[in-house]
Design a protein that fits this description.
The chain has one domain: Purple Acid Phosphatase, chain A, domain 2 (4-Layer Sandwich), CATH 3.60.21. 32% of the residues lie in helices and 17% in strands. Helix 10 links the parallel strand 7 and strand 8. Bound molecules: fe (ii) ion (FE2). The site of fe (ii) ion (FE2) has 6 residues, from loops.
Length: 269
């Protein structure tokens, strides 16, 4: 039988939550819908510590046959001295270690320029990144945005090695290449950073800082038609159709102080 639903969450930020619960299972159980689907999609930002992320995924595996994960910017963070030493000041080492941990859990797939076919539905994705392309559509220069990014975004301090302007562009181009490689055949696209800022509240739309939460995905969206595109990064829920027919969904969980009170959402295909 063809897959008819999947479940969606992002931005769990486990390091802000797990200490508040007796066990990781208590936390996970609070997130579950009444009738969980077979597949859970997590659109990035599990948390700052691989060990916590592994416990989280193993707890979800009590419920879900298949878990599809893409990485967010916080999954690249090395936010204390011991983490930086352990991963040799290289966020790439942390991601590779997390991939190795997840490969050891049956039914878990990392979407990193890859796709997976489950009961007739192809899911594909990668983390994606903000490359200042959305800021350019607002008329900001790249050099100005880079200066703002360095001052305002934790990414510039907690992702190692610190990204130069050129590194950022290179990183984005790699992500875009990965996404293009799986785009056509994927019915459900999963990225951490979203391709379209249409759902952003008007009051934030002209801020240069807001431009670090999206990329300009207009070219991809023009080819997305009947796809479903799941994303996170902005802790702001959305579910709407782009003019070209693509359905864009954000179901971020977020930080305790935000009180979003999100649960895992069931998406009907
Ligand atoms: Fe994020």
């Amino acid at each position: 039988m063809a897959l008819s639903t999947f479940d969606l969450i992002s931005d769990l930020h486990a390091d802000f939550w797990l200490d508040r619960y007796p066990t990781v299972d208590h936390f996970v159980d609070e997130l579950l819908p009444e009738e969980p689907s077979k597949v859970l999609v997590i659109a990035g930002d599990l948390g700052h510590l691989n060990s916590q992320n592994e416990r989280l995924i193993k707890s979800f595996k009590r419920i879900y046959d298949q878990i599809l994960v893409t990485f967010g910017n916080h999954d690249l963070y090395l936010d204390d001295y011991s983490e930086r030493c352990y991963f040799d000041n290289n966020s790439g080492n942390r991601i590779n270690a997390m991939k190795t941990l997840f490969r050891g859990i049956e039914g878990v797939t990392v979407l990193d320029g890859s796709c997976v076919l489950i009961d007739g539905v192809t899911f594909g994705g990668t983390g994606m990144w903000h490359d200042f392309s959305y800021g350019a559509t607002l008329g900001f220069s790249e050099s100005y945005l880079y200066d703002v990014w360095q001052v305002c975004m934790n990414d510039s301090n907690l992702i190692f090695p610190t990204k130069s302007r050129q590194d950022l562009k290179g990183f984005f181009e790699e992500e875009l290449t990965k996404l293009e490689a799986i785009f056509e055949q994927s019915q459900v696209i999963v990225t951490h950073v979203g391709p379209d800022a249409a759902s952003m509240p008007q009051m934030y739309k002209s801020s240069p800082v807001s431009t670090f939460f999206y990329f300009d995905g207009s070219n991809l969206l023009s080819r997305a038609h009947n796809k479903i595109w799941c994303y996170g990064h902005t802790h702001s829920h959305a579910d709407y159709h782009h003019s070209n027919g693509c359905r864009l969904i954000n179901n971020a969980f977020g930080y305790p102080r935000e009180r979003l009170q999100a649960k895992i959402r069931t998406i009907h295909l």
